[in-house]
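We modelled the chain as a single entity of 297 amino acids. Its sequence is:
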Amino acid sequence: MAGKKNEKSRAEEIEREVRHGRHYRAYKLLLRPDRFQTAQGFADYWKLASGIAADLGIETEAGAGYSGHEQRAVSFWDTPTFDLYRIGFILRRRRRVIDGFPAKEVEHTLKIRHPALETVCGADMKANTSSKCVVKFKEAILQSPESPQGMKSVFSHNGVLKLKTLDLVSTIGELNGLFPVTQMAELPPQTPIRRVNDLLIEEVAADLGQMAFDRFIASADVSVWRNRGTGEALAGEFSWQSRFKEELTSGKRRVGQDKATEFYQALMRETGDWLLRGTTKTRAVYEYGGRNVECQE
């Protein structure tokens, strides 16, 4: 009985940290990757998006943009039958590529992602390791597949490790030991963990600029994912995010959030020939090759 009380107490403590601590709100708009075959595509999209922003009274400032791109190698890891993803867990490995060579540091992220805030809030994403684990909470605004102008919120709680180790875990048992929160999946410890669909993704991202939404500034970027082995384009994404100190329901955020939402809806309405509908970048990886995977996104 004491164990259950302690478990409940810890869940309540985590929820307070999320609701009253620093967290992020990100807007993500999926784009057709074929529109970004050259650097000019990044410039064209920023010109279009910043023009729409100006019409709404949103100040923008160009950044490094298409004159400088960042490259990363990205992969996802799961059981052969994608058991983690089906219940809301995502295990991602990401590594910067600098002047054609992989960086020494590798970013390993475990996240739980779900439309229900309560489900995500109570998850303890701390890692059982002496290495620093950075815990982040994020609300992502995504296109709703049910309506061309629809929006939906998906919440995620993330544990991020930056290591010089490429391989993190190879079985569910090892993952349970590193991130105890994954024990809730109740999977056999010997279940193997493999790279999802054997895909290694090449990500090319451009910092387009900054936008001002009332009292907060957001950095905007476009990223494109390709199959590194074949060069096949998978998905593009325009996104911007802000970091908040206030409580999730604070009225101080309202004006800026309303303006950001107005901009998001205008982009969906006025840039239809750029949009990729009905997916997310992660889902595009899991459903590569024509698979249909039920998930919590």
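As a brief sanity check on the tokenised model: The chain is about 25% helix and 35% strand. The chain has one domain: 23-286.
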